[in-house]
Amino acid sequence: MKLKIIALILACVTVAAMIASCGGKGNDAPKEEATSSNAAETETEKNGEDISASDEEINGIKNYVNELAGKINVTGSTFTWFGPNNVGVNAPEKSEETGDILSDAVYYRQRDIEDIYGVKWENLWGEHGEDVATKVINEVMAAGQSYDLVYGSVRSAGTPMLNAGVLSTTNDLEYVDLDQRWWVASLRDTFSIRGNLYFLIGPIVVNSYTDTNIIIFNKKVTSMFGIDDTLIYDTVKEGKWTIDKMFEIASVIPENVSGSGVYRYITPCGFPFLFSSGMTLTKFDDDGVPYMDDALPKEYSDLADKLSAVFSDPSQSAFEDEIKKEDYSQKYGSDPETMFADDRGLFFFVSTDAARYMREYDVTFGIIPMPKQNGSQKEYYSFANSWGGSAVYFPKTIKNRPMSDAIAESMAALSQIYVKDAYYTKLLKSQAIFDLESRDMLDIIFTNKIYDMADLYAGGNLDNWGPMIIAIDQAIRLDSSTFASNYKGNARVVKMNIKMLLKTLDQAE
Predict the structure, then answer these.
(1) pLDDT at 345
(2) Helix pair 101-117, 401-417: axis angle to 10 deg
(3) How would CATH label the architecture of 213-385+447-508?
(4) Which CATH code of 3.40.190.10, 1.10.645.10, 2.60.120.10, 3.30.300.30 fits the domain covering 45-209+387-434?
(5) pTM value?
């Protein structure tokens, strides 16, 4: 029951937009965040908890944190960590060990900060991301200093705070080193606005491991139709896992014309295919101002034409059709997770967290990355959606900036020991998989994460994707015939939103 509750909390935090298009419950780490299983990593007993990291790494990180703490004197101060109400995930259930892997991990981190810095730790929660944003905005506008570090979904919490001009740029944080492996350094290139970065992402928030699009395949279905699981894995390892190869493997399953058979694809997601194909939405001009092309790029339309022909075919794919207003219960009398567990689908398009919560269902599955566009593409790319992905933020009215800077860096560093180990190594790579090959696949998936800030200024909200993103997703999944006109119309709105954002940031200086 404990695992089910945590899975539900994480799903609520990480899913949002992916529910609308992909049908799953939930849908991080850059290249330097990839974890490998090697002989140097041993299970070591430290202060009562098991840590899957080498003694050298543990000691190095703790020495680093102690050195940071020695640069400031905040003994007796209160440090307030504020975010959505997901107790046991990014904040502990209790200020003690409970036996829960995730809750204990964030408790150990909190305990170390209190001990090393001599501070009193305070956890405060909003009801959800939007509530966190509202409270921070009101606090800053009133010159309040209640929050020392804030976390929450980039889309539901970060975007409103950015648009309100209440966040400090992270460029000049005195003690935060974005070159350290516990931060996603690529954000400086993908989320900066005129060279200013307002969000930090890494294992400091658990959601950095739950927001990534993947594919899981049903091992009973592969057995039923004579598909070799090893061949699928080897195809990925050899760099030959492409869209065409996915189509080829799935074609072994007969078309499900009657609807009573097996579908080749369940909840195919359009938007992530754009990124797994090596494309991005956001571009930057010479001044670092983000923009999108005014007219539909040909590579987008070519991809949409190729995929929509398959994914919109009701004899091949089980999908929720927003255009016709048909949901899963109406079309199939079931939800997508149950359909997959009932062996009614081969490939299920979900998020990394699904690798964990799908263990609640009686189904054996393998994990693979999203496919490359073609064989000439060198790397696999995995999209991290900002509805699911969470970040940390520095409100403008923080009472003690050096303390917040240093503790943020220390929390991120300690998360490399505790949080990464608890979620990525123990829960995801050990308890949530059925074969060793899936461990290798997870390392491939987390090697090249793609972040794109387009969804921050594309409009819309959590219950309704931004119009531009809706247009792209539906064109790739359902119907590409109106893609060009929909894209052009929404590009004008995006340009207006960017202009408004820049004006707000200028006024907030």
Answers:
(1) 97
(2) 140
(3) 3-Layer(aba) Sandwich (3.40)
(4) 3.40.190.10
(5) 0.84
